[in-house]
Design brief:
The complex is a heterodimer of chains A (346) and B (382).
Chain A lengths: L16 H9 L13 H8 L3 H9 L8 E3 H10 L2 E2 L4 H6 L5 E2 L3 E5 L6 H11 L12 E6 L6 H16 L10 H6 L1 E5 L3 H17 L3 E7 L12 H21 L3 E6 L1 E6 L8 E6 L11 E8 L2 E8 L6 E8 L2 E3 L18
Parallel strand pairs in A: 4-8, 4-11, 5-6, 5-7, 7-8
Antiparallel strand pairs in A: 2-3, 9-10, 11-12, 12-13, 13-14
Chain B lengths: L10 H12 L5 H7 L12 H10 L7 H11 L2 E2 L4 H6 L4 E2 L3 E6 L5 H15 L4 E6 L6 H10 L4 H5 L4 H5 L2 E5 L3 H17 L3 H4 L1 E7 L1 H5 L8 H21 L2 E10 L25 E3 L2 H5 L4 E7 L13 E3 L5 E3 L1 E9 L8 E6 L4 E4 L7 H16 L1
Parallel strand pairs in B: 3-7, 3-9, 4-5, 4-6, 6-7
Antiparallel strand pairs in B: 1-2, 7-8, 9-12, 10-11, 12-13, 13-14
Helix pairs in contact in B: 2-3, 10-13
Classes of the chains: A alpha/beta (346), B alpha/beta (382).
């Protein structure tokens, strides 16, 4: 028996309701029915403009599949760029050189852990000249909480420049103004603005191909209040995550989203067995949105970052410090004492 | 579907067909849907048309004994690279079926999927694997590491199979949204039918990582179109898996189920997982609708810290190359299945480049650890 082609219903095409109904009423059920139809006759049958008919038929013309073998992907992954955090231990946790391009990294932490500081540091570090081991790129900072302080960025940039030029004649050095001009800040006041911005970011990224890092500080803020319909919230958030993953892949940039922490009360057997833990906000399913997830926490007087989710890196915990100069290593910390980090002889 | 007019018939029949077409009936399906017809009595339907329609829509019947024989022949399993997981799956990922790994983030779903892909590529030197990645989690360097360092592939490595050869047969497609997934599946179907592409013709395994990422933005209350897309994907994938003999694997999110039954909550789907863990109950995402699609589902979850109180030693494993890796524990439960016992479970041990499992969940003492290493060794040697 000859193999029949798979039947794909026309209702799965990306069309508005009215056009779908017209297609259905005109007797088109599967995409196979539309195969040999010309645009003008379709327009006539559906009583729509020829442009609309074209838009239907355009969806049937697929781009050829772009698949890469894992071997090719391996070479590409080795060439992938990174944005350093200025903290060696932090960079090492993320695979050696910092926040990876092509991936979505989520950093979760309570207030005061330095999420914004890390974000600003990354914005500055994305611009380090290639001759100094950087990417010489630009940065996008989506500020939802109003915590982006330019004075602080200037401080961090100055310190970074100083560290880079230490002991060298600073011929190809950059000015602070150059640094600031290459950080694109979007101030967001509501979740509607946030979703709208993410949906429109394609054009901006096409116009600014040098953007190497995209920071969202924080993803959660506007989604944690005034939300009656939790189903809608989940859909919006997951849709946004879909876009962010696509940006990371298509434009080869590092997406870093900050997330808040929330208290979760768990109920034990008895009534006095209740306990509470700090967990990242936005619920369990949001944990899937990112590729790598880092949770920041205090242990005594030291800040620690723990990598808790990654498809390609080892889970581990490292100390880091926030200083007046930005994100730095904890003085005296010896890396690779963690038993879980004994791995990967490369 | 074919037009009725395209079937071979004589002149007198043509007339009737014209008549039918005048009534908007051009395909056998329309004939069925609109019957009894609004045709007047004197334009009685030609018997032969009925016959043609029946022919066009015929479905071959198979006797039970023949079906059993065919099925036994067709029972080909792909190993996940972890004997314990294969046992849970009743032998592994069955070719022609759809296997789903669901669970919370960082519970080893992707790692096990990587292992399945590698094991499949290693077990059959011609097999090819397609990895449809919607969550940016495909990592070729990780796969190469797993193949180079895992004890699972020790024997094969000494036999001369290298990572390049394995990786060259695994392909990855980036798939940002569900519409793109439909395009991919349609194209795959075309290529499989044409037998034109050598890579596609040797396809043994298709992995989608993850369906949760693709569908969760579009399903939910009142989102009819999202459900249509989701179920079309499910239908296409399963039909193709059966027709072209490959195993389909999907990864899915785990979400918290609303078990407290507060205002506006729906009753949680009762599954084995709801009773485990005691505190937080999670279930696979995408709801009841999707739950009918995969043939078998495993659910991955963290092991509650309270159960391990007093057991804060780090388990570690030294592989044959002398590398020591720490192991983290996850619980894996059979959530839906028609082949194996629902609710049976294993503890999964995840290491830097190993996946191992242990059937005993009650005692995590040294004795068990020794036994575990022994049993794993025995399984590996057998």
């Amino acid at each position: 028996m000859p193999m029949k082609q798979m039947q794909r219903p026309v209702s799965t095409l990306n069309l508005d309701q009215a056009l779908r109904t017209r297609l259905h009423n005109a007797g088109y059920r599967t995409t196979a029915d539309l195969k040999d139809v010309a645009a003008d006759s379709l327009a006539q049958q559906l009583k729509v403009s020829i442009d609309q008919a074209m838009s239907v038929l355009k969806q049937l013309k697929r781009d050829p599949l772009v698949s890469v073998s894992a071997l090719t992907a391996l070479t590409r992954e080795r060439q992938r760029s990174f944005v350093t955090t200025s903290c060696k231990a932090f960079d090492e946790m993320l695979g050696g050189s910092g926040v990876p391009a092509g991936r979505v990294t989520e950093i979760c932490g309570a207030p005061g852990m330095g999420k914004t500081q890390i974000g600003m540091q990354l914005c500055v570090n994305a611009q380090i000249l290639s001759s100094q081991g950087g990417e010489h790129g630009e940065a996008i900072y989506i500020d939802t909480e109003g915590s982006f302080i330019v004075e602080r960025v200037v401080e961090i940039a100055e310190a970074t420049l100083e560290a880079l030029n230490a002991g060298k004649d600073s011929q190809d050095s950059q000015t602070i103004e150059q640094f600031l001009s290459r950080i694109h800040v979007f101030r967001i006041h509501s979740y509607v603005e946030q979703v709208a911005l993410i949906n429109q970011l394609d054009d901006f990224l096409t116009e600014h191909p040098k953007v190497k890092v995209l920071i969202i500080d924080s993803i959660a803020f506007h989604f944690r209040q005034n939300f009656a319909d939790m189903g809608l919230r989940t859909r919006l958030l997951n849709g946004m995550a879909q876009h962010l993953r696509r940006f990371a892949e298509e434009f080869d940039l590092a997406v870093v989203m900050m997330n808040q922490m929330t208290t979760r009360v768990t109920r034990g057997q008895g009534s006095d067995n209740d306990s509470s833990v700090l967990v990242p906000a936005l619920g369990d399913s949001w944990g899937h949105a990112c590729t790598n997830r880092i949770i920041l926490s205090w242990q005594y007087e030291v800040r620690y970052a723990a990598l808790v989710k990654s498809p390609n890196l080892q889970e581990c915990t490292i100390p880091y410090a926030i200083t007046s100069k930005g994100v730095r290593d904890v003085p005296g910390h010896r890396p690779a004492t963690n038993p879980r980090k004994r791995l990967l002889p490369t | 579907m074919n037009q009725i007019a395209s079937t071979q018939c004589d002149q007198s029949l043509r007339k009737t067909i014209k008549l039918l077409e005048g009534k908007g009936i051009t395909r056998p399906r329309d004939y069925l849907l609109k019957h009894p017809l609004p045709l007047s009595s004197k334009e009685s339907i030609h018997e032969e048309i009925k016959h043609k329609v029946a022919e066009a829509l015929a479905c071959p019947l198979t006797a039970g004994d023949v079906a059993l024989e065919e099925e036994n022949e067709r029972h080909v399993f792909l190993s996940t690279g972890c004997p314990g997981m294969d046992e849970l799956l009743g032998g592994g990922c069955l070719i022609g079926e759809m296997t789903e790994f669901a669970g919370a983030p960082a519970t080893g779903k992707t790692q096990l999927a990587f292992f399945t892909a590698l094991t499949t590529a290693a077990a059959d030197p011609n097999a090819t694997i397609l990895y449809i990645d919607s969550s940016n989690s495909f990592s070729a360097s990780r796969m190469s590491q797993l193949f180079t360092f895992s004890d699972r592939f020790d024997f094969l490595r000494t036999k001369g199979m290298n990572a390049e050869y394995v990786l060259s047969r695994i392909k990855c497609i980036q798939c940002p949204d569900a519409c793109k997934l439909l395009d991919i599946l349609e194209e795959l179907d075309t290529k499989l039918a044409e037998k034109s592409d050598p890579f596609v013709s040797q396809l043994n395994l298709v992995i989608i990582d993850s369906v949760g990422a693709l569908f969760s933005p579009m399903v939910g209350f009142g989102q009819t179109r999202g459900y249509v897309v989701m179920m079309t994907v499910g239908h296409m994938l399963k039909t193709m898996a059966m027709r072209y003999r490959f195993a389909a694997m999907t990864l899915n999110y785990g979400v918290q189920s609303d078990f407290r039954g507060g205002k506006g909550s729906r009753n949680a789907v009762s599954g084995p997982v709801s009773d485990i863990g005691g505190q937080l109950r999670t279930k696979p995402a995408l709801g009841t609708t999707w739950s009918f699609v995969p043939n078998i589902r495993l659910f991955f979850s963290d092991i509650n810290d309270s159960e391990n109180a007093g057991d804060d030693e780090v388990l570690s494993y030294q592989n044959r190359q002398g590398l020591i890796t720490a192991l983290t524990k996850r619980r894996v439960v059979v959530y839906n299945s028609h082949r194996t016992a629902i609710g049976s479970e294993r503890i999964l041990f995840l290491g830097s480049y190993e996946v191992m499992s242990f059937p005993d969940t009650t005692n995590t003492g040294q004795w068990n650890r020794d036994l575990f290493v022994k049993s794993e060794n025995a399984q590996r040697h057998s």
